[in-house]
Design a protein that fits this description.
Elements (H helix, E strand, L loop, with lengths): L41 H12 L2 E6 L3 E6 L2 H9 L4 E2 L6 H4 L10 H4 L10 H16 L3 H19 L4 E3 L1 H5 L2 H10 L7 H12 L4 H21 L5 H7 L6 H32 L1 H9 L4 H11 L6 E6 L3 E3 L2 E3 L4 E4 L1 H5 L31 H18 L4 E2 L8 E3 L4 E3 L3 E3 L64 H11 L3
Parallel strand pairs: 2-8
Antiparallel strand pairs: 1-2, 3-5, 4-12, 5-8, 6-7, 9-12, 10-11
Helix pairs in contact: 5-11, 6-8, 6-16, 8-12, 9-10, 10-11, 10-12, 12-13, 12-14, 12-16
The structure holds protoporphyrin IX containing FE (HEM).
């Protein structure tokens, strides 16, 4: 359904709804607000907007600033791919240019223009992005996967003997930070304080500025160290790239990469684990071998993209999108969450999207996420290794007690409490060993794990994470009773495949 063309800016007035009209409670122009009590369930709100306006809908941001929300899959793709018509440079946004959006607007951190590749376009975007992608290309994927595995082992060691954990605060929020500190070349900065600071800075609490400063100081120290003496890590390659990034540019791109990677990947891990734990179809397919962990991760990227929306794109000229008249200077919300649920491409939301990677979770066009392989690797290896260590892991609360913290940009699971039979620690330099489950609480097993007792092994004492992890022998050939699937997965994992 397509509504009459509307305009967000220009001469069109915002008449209030007549008394008694159901639109009362909405904002000016009877438009829906994407914030406040109206927006407690943004997913439902997007569906009402789709119903009312079609694939591009007018809505209101904080302070009732108008913004188009792009709800259609094809329209979102058109938005990100049409760089001659739409830009990420907010300086042309009419409400910002005319002073309607004040410097203290709550979404300013997302909106304010910064000298980073996300906001640049044309030659400047190419210069900055070339340095970022070239530095990413130097990351060796096999050793990256080994690091992810070692960090997963280390994190699971912290709680495996207790039989209980919160997989959001004790796992999903830690693993991406540990891996990103390794990639950037500042392993010494990874600790609980750094995880807390990043979480706090993104939440926008009263201590957000202080936390942001804490992270930025670490990135400044790193930039100065690598400028003085480059090594073989992401930061050094950024510093020495022929694009000639200044110290400020290096630091700002380290911030972009660290926060984008941390937030998105923490969300992806939490979402994927939640799906595995609560959706019986997922469990059955994983345990039956009809679905691999990477496929489960991809399904999660369709159903719950880690960034629900990206603020924002801006029209460089008058144009039309999804039947709406877009004026030069209008803002448009790129919206993977409703775009991935577009009924034109997913008439049946319960149907599996296996083998189809055309979701919008990583954006598209010139700004498409350059770190997607790293995000996928963290999620694939992390989830696989965790489930290998804790095959009997189960949700430790009724499913309807799980809660989310939502903002326009993303939706975070607050906690994912789980329980399992306590397990001994394992050597973090070794691939995860599936532990026997004496009395599984359910028939579910990840992959093709055996349920009969494993041969008695004395678990090695927990060792500190080696950096880099020493090559370890491939585990001895399995006994005939073991099914082949799990060992093949283990060998593949250990070889970094
Ligand atoms: C599952 C994890 C991730 C998701 C879902 C994700 C998603 C996204 C999205 C939606 C964008 C914006 C695209 C646009 O503006 O059209 C983006 C941009 C970006 N992401 Fe990711 N990301 C993830 C992980 C990462 C990682 C691990 C890194 C770095 C190692 C990274 C680095 C970046 C950078 C540098 C940009 C800006 C690119 C540009 O504007 O040219 N992301 N990401």
């Amino acid at each position: 359904m397509t509504s009459e063309p509307t305009s967000l800016t220009g001469t069109d007035p915002f008449p209030g709804p007549p008394p008694g009209c159901p639109a009362h409670g909405r904002g000016p122009g009877a438009l829906h607000r994407l914030y406040g009590p109206d927006a407690e369930e943004l997913g439902d709100l997007y569906e009402s907007l789709r119903e009312e306006h079609g694939s591009v809908a007018p809505a209101l941001l904080h302070d009732d600033v108008p913004m188009w929300v792009v709800l259609g899959h094809a329209e979102n793709l058109h938005l990100v791919r049409s760089s001659s018509v739409f830009t990420r440079d907010s300086r042309i946004w009419t409400p910002l240019a005319d002073g309607t959006v004040k410097p203290d607007h709550p979404l300013m951190p997302h909106i304010a223009w910064q000298p980073i590749c996300s906001h640049a376009e044309g030659d400047e975007h190419q210069r900055l992005r070339a340095a970022v992608t070239a530095a990413m290309e130097t990351i060796e994927h096999r050793s990256l996967r080994r690091h992810i595995g070692s960090y997963t082992q280390e994190l699971v060691n912290r709680f495996c003997e207790r039989g209980r954990a919160d997989l959001v605060s004790q796992f999903a929020e830690h693993l991406p930070m540990a891996v990103m500190c390794e990639i950037l070349g500042m392993t010494e900065e990874y600790n609980d304080r750094m995880v807390q600071a990043a979480r706090d800075a993104l939440k926008g609490t009263e201590t957000a500025i202080q936390s942001h400063t804490y992270v930025m100081e670490a990135l400044s120290r790193l930039t100065a160290r690598r400028r003085a003496q480059p090594e073989d890590d992401f930061t050094s390659h950024l510093v020495t790239h022929p694009a000639g990034l200044s110290d400020d540019e290096v630091r700002e791109h380290l911030r972009l990469v660290l926060f984008a990677a941390y937030e998105a990947t923490a969300n992806l891990l939490a979402n994927a684990l939640r799906m595995v734990l609560t959706e019986p179809g997922f469990r059955a397919q994983l345990s039956g071998g009809q679905m691999t962990v990477p496929e489960a991760i991809e399904q999660s990227l369709w159903d719950e993209p880690p960034f629900s929306t990206v603020l924002a794109y801006y029209a460089k000229q008058d144009t039309e999108l999804g039947g709406q008249r877009i004026r030069k200077g209008d803002g448009l919300l790129f919206a993977p969450a409703p775009g991935n649920l577009d009924p034109r491409i997913r008439p049946d939301l319960s149907a599996s999207m296996q083998g189809n990677r055309s979701h919008l979770a990583f954006g598209g066009g010139p700004h498409e996420c350059p770190g997607q392989d790293i995000g996928r690797a963290i999620a694939d290896v992390g989830v696989d290794a965790l489930l290998m260590r804790l095959p009997d892991v189960q949700l430790d609360c009724p499913e309807d007690e799980l809660s989310w913290r939502s903002s326009i940009a993303s939706r975070h699971l607050v906690a994912l409490p789980v329980r399992f039979e306590p397990k001994p620690q394992q050597d973090v330099g070794m691939p995860p060993r599936p532990m026997a489950v004496s009395a599984p609480r359910s028939g579910w097993q990840v992959g093709t794990l055996r349920t009969d007792p494993a041969p008695a092994t004395t678990p090695p004492p927990a060792a500190p994470r080696p950096a880099p992890p020493a090559p370890a022998p491939v585990p001895a050939a399995p006994e005939p009773v073991r099914k082949r699937g799990v060992w093949q997965r283990l060998l593949r994992w250990w070889r970094g495949e």
